[in-house]
């Protein structure tokens, strides 16, 4: 049985491990964590994809350090990231200010020059890179990175990274969400900087990661514009739908059989919490589950949620759907099922914390507006 852990953040997996058997966790890690776009991501993709077609092949050059000869001058004039667009001298100088030292999850990281060959080992990091206009610098991404279309996808793993395999791409920067298999120490020995950007705990964390990736790649101004656009879009949708819906209850489904959910303290819980909804999982949470409790079907049915959000729609995530939910024994009595308020979210967007977050907020906002009007 598969559960939706295809792109599950490391923080979530560690919390859920204590509540699941090792066999179930293995399934989750291989299975929680398409093509929906936003103005931010689509525009950035137009630039970045120019270099995708030839980037996936490993480089035969040495693995010693960063080369700036093949890097194009970063554009900071618009959020589109068009490769040929011009930037003001001041913006160009700010975005190309190297060397730069950043404080990431793995400590202080110094990048001596604009990285011309970037390897991304995390789907969210990949989306961030392309959104800020660094797509033309990306030479390889991990096996789970699938957005934007045309990224140089490889068999590299972010969960169990192989130092030798990564080094074959002669990277001048590696971006990952966790320091597994001695990734940082292994790449450091080769003189290659690693930026660890873990699962975001808050919206501000997500924004800060995008900004930091922009600084690390020479696209500071463009990253700032991406963040500002995200904030504007999210604020508009929240304002339109309203923030005082405490009378509306919801259930957010990570997986079915077993039924794992999220509490209000989690990143996803905070996103939904922007609208003031009441989370039925909060009452069932224990300290040991880390914010991701396993709920019984009886508990869910008895709680009678008025909204159900599914993040396990894709086949690899469980293949759930509003129709499938309606057929579950006893679930027909749930108000969300009766009122057709079971929402199948975009699984990838719901399990990542990058530039497509406004899409998730928009989906939730639409559902809240619909439920409030009934």
Short overview:
By secondary structure, the chain is α/β, with parallel strands linked by helices. It folds into 2 domains: 10-33 and 242-372, Nitrogenase molybdenum iron protein domain (Rossmann fold); 39-233, 3-Layer(aba) Sandwich (Rossmann fold).
Q: What is the terminal separation in angstroms?
A: 36 Å
Task: Identify the CATH class of the largest domain.
Answer: Alpha Beta
**Helix and strand composition category:** alpha/beta
Spell the H/E element sequence: HHHHHEEEHEHEHEHHEEHEEHEHHEHH
CATH architecture of the largest domain: 3-Layer(aba) Sandwich
Domain tally = 2
What is the H level of CATH, i.e. the homologous superfamily of the largest domain? Nitrogenase molybdenum iron protein domain
List low-pLDDT spans.
1-7, 10-57, 59-91
Strand content: 5-15%
Which whole number gives the mean pLDDT? Answer: 82
Helix content: 25-40%
């Amino acid at each position: 049985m598969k559960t939706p852990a295809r792109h599950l953040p490391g923080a979530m997996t560690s919390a859920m491990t204590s509540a699941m058997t090792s066999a179930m966790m293995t399934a989750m890690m291989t299975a929680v964590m398409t093509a929906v776009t936003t103005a931010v991501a689509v525009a950035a993709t137009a630039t970045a994809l120019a270099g995708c077609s030839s980037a996936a092949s490993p480089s035969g050059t040495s693995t010693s350090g960063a080369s700036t000869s093949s890097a194009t001058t970063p554009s900071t004039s618009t959020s589109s990231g068009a490769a040929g667009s011009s930037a003001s001298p001041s913006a160009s100088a700010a975005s190309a200010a190297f060397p730069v030292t950043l404080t990431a999850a793995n400590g202080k990281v110094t990048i001596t020059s604009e990285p011309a060959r970037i390897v991304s080992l995390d789907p969210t990091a990949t989306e961030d890179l392309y959104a800020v206009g660094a797509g033309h610098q990306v030479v390889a991404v991990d096996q789970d990175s699938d957005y934007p279309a045309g990224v140089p996808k490889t068999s590299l793993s972010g969960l169990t990274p192989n130092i030798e395999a990564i080094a074959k791409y002669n990277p001048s920067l590696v971006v990952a969400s966790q320091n597994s298999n001695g990734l940082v120490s292994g790449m450091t020995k080769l003189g290659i900087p690693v930026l660890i950007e873990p699962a975001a705990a808050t919206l501000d964390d997500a924004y800060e990661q995008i900004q930091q990736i922009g600084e690390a790649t020479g696209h500071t101004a463009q990253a700032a514009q991406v963040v500002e656009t995200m904030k504007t879009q999210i604020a508009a949708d929240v304002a339109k739908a309203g923030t005082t819906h405490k009378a509306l209850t919801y259930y957010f489904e990570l997986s079915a059989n077993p039924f794992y959910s999220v509490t209000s303290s989690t990143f996803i819980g905070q996103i939904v919490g922007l609208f003031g909804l009441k989370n039925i999982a909060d009452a069932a949470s224990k300290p040991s589950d880390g914010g991701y409790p396993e709920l019984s079907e009886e508990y869910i049915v008895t709680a009678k949620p008025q909204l159900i959000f599914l993040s396990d729609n894709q086949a690899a995530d469980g293949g759930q759907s509003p129709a499938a939910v309606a057929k579950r024994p006893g679930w027909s009595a749930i108000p969300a099922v009766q009122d057709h308020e079971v929402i199948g979210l975009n699984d990838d967007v719901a399990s990542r914390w990058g530039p497509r977050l406004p899409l998730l907020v928009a989906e939730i906002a639409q559902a809240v507006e619909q439920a409030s009007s009934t």
